[in-house]
Every structure is written in structure tokens, then in C-alpha cells.
Amino acid sequence: MTLTHEQWAVLEPLVEACRPHAKVPPQHLRRTIGAILWRHDNGAKWRSLPAEEGPWWMAAQTFIRWSRLGVWERLLTLAQDRGIGLGMTFLDGTSIRAHQKAAGAAKKGATAPERDEREALGRSRGGFGTKVCVIADSVGRAVAFSLTPGQAHELPQAIPLLAALPDVPLWVVGDRGYSSHAFREHVWNLGARPAIPPKRNEAPVACPPWIYNNRNRVERLWARLKEWRAVATRYEKTASSFLGVLHLAAALDWLRR
């Protein structure tokens, strides 16, 4: 994507508010942010950045360092100041295939399986990849993400994601992957109402169709986020960098809507 004057006018104050501040301010901040957006939108190698986007290593180092510092997560939080809709919240997970270049992060004293667990990489029926879970607000905008290896189930991520909300929602909507009596009870104890259909081998439970049918909002969220090729396929070796891609894409989605 090309960063227009209008987009930069909205994005610049947010970036300035969340970026680390050194003694010498960055001289080409807009160009560097534009290069980062171009790379993740196209899923290209850092070295393939067009010359007009500036030195590739500058954009790469900035993105990776800011991911470790949580800058992109703070950017998403600032974008959410427009107001998170809590009439309905949606839980959903998706499997992201990892490119072969995503493997090989530094071991840092861990074994290869321990490294893959730390970097949220694992092998499932769909291949080598990462399971990404999201909680979205009533409009279908991402509030928070969690990463697990590709073979992991998404239900254990539900309670931590609910804790990321600023307040208790009215409804918590999820598909059959979140069907659990213990989880439904947790939602009721929070003061919210679950809209989660039972599995085929479970007894019927209340799941109002007029609420559950809105779950397409989180599915459309994934469709928008996966327009970024670096979201649709994981190229990042570390979990922190891939989370940075997700937070950046979600922040831009908030600013567009």
C-alpha cells in the first residue's frame, strides 16, 4: 500500500505518541512507516523494497525493534480510542500457514521444540503454521490477539482474550470450537451472555440465532486482515514480529472504519 497524505495525517500523531523517543528524532519517519506498510501489504522480502522507500535495513530494523518494544500494540490501543463496541464481542481463531523462511529463530538456550513453542509455530493437519485467535468488538474490529502453535486448540485462549476487553460485554459470540460448559459458566459469571452453539454430541443450549448470525462480522474481519499478504502467510521468525504485523494491520483497519 502507498501511504497517502490523508492517511499520514491521521497516522502520524498516533505513531509519535507510541514510538520510542531518542535524543535525535527520526529524519525519515514517514518514509520508514511507508516502507513497513509496503512490505507487509505485499509480503515481499525486506531486500525487495523499492528504492524510493529508503534503505531496506532501516525499515526492517525499525519494525523488528518496535515489535519487541510493543509499539505496534500501543498503536492499536490508541486507534481504539474511537470506542470499542461491547454490545456483542466475537471470538474466533484461524490457522496461518508459515512460510519456510519463518522457521529458524534463535534457539536462545532452548531445544528446537521449545523454540517452536515459544515462537508459536507447530504442525497440524493444515501444515506448519500458527493458530491466531482474536476478540473483536460489535462492529467487527480487532481488540486483541493471541498466538499459539498451529496444532493448539483455541478454547484456552478465550478467557485471556476476554480479559483484554475494557469492560464486560453484553454478548460473547463464538463458534462450536468454544463450546464448553466451563467457559459458558465463566461468561455468565462475568455478567455477559454466551451465544455459542453446542457440539453435535452435546445437549442443546440456548444460542439465539439473531445474535449468533452476526458472527460473520469477525469472519469479515479476517478477510480484511488477510488482504495483507504478511498476515495471510507468516513470514516472521519470531512471535513478537508476527504479532507486530497483526497489530499494525488491525490498527489500520480501525482507522479506515
TrEMBL record:
All residue ranges annotated as the Insertion element IS402-like domain in the record: 3-75
Pfam families found in the cross-reference section: DDE_Tnp_1_2, DUF4096
Skewed-composition ranges (Basic and acidic residues): 113-122
Domain Transposase DDE: 172-256
Superkingdom classification of source: Bacteria
InterPro entries for this protein: IS402-like_dom (IPR025161), Tnp_DDE_dom (IPR025668)
Biased composition range(s): Low complexity: 102-112
Region (Disordered): 102-123
Coiled coil: none
PANTHER family in the record: BLR1914 PROTEIN (PTHR30007:SF1), PHP DOMAIN PROTEIN (PTHR30007)
UniProt xrefs under NCBIfam families: transpos_IS5_3
Protein name: IS5 family transposase
Species the sequence originates in: Roseomonas indoligenes
